[in-house]
Design goal:
With 64 residues, this protein is of the alpha+beta class. It has one domain. The chain contains one helix and two strands. A two-stranded antiparallel sheet has the order 1-2. The chain is rod-shaped.
């Protein structure tokens, strides 16, 4: 059986995903890029914080 060698990189940020890649029964499975997941988590956290701050400020201005 021939041996296949390849490198896997994130299509979004370019990070190497070789440690996130497993091969089982002729199937290649690649986990999500942790760098991109972390960035999106922070982005969501920041957006939620900003939305909450804006809402609180508006409520305070209305005297609620």
């Amino acid at each position: 059986m021939p041996e296949l060698s390849f490198n896997v990189y994130c299509g979004t940020c370019g990070a190497a995903l070789c440690t996130n890649t497993t091969v089982r029964s002729s199937r290649v499975m690649v986990d999500a890029c942790q760098s991109c997941l972390d960035r999106e988590y922070r982005k969501g956290h920041d957006e939620g914080y900003n939305d909450g701050y804006r809402d609180a400020t508006e409520h305070a201005a209305k005297g609620l």
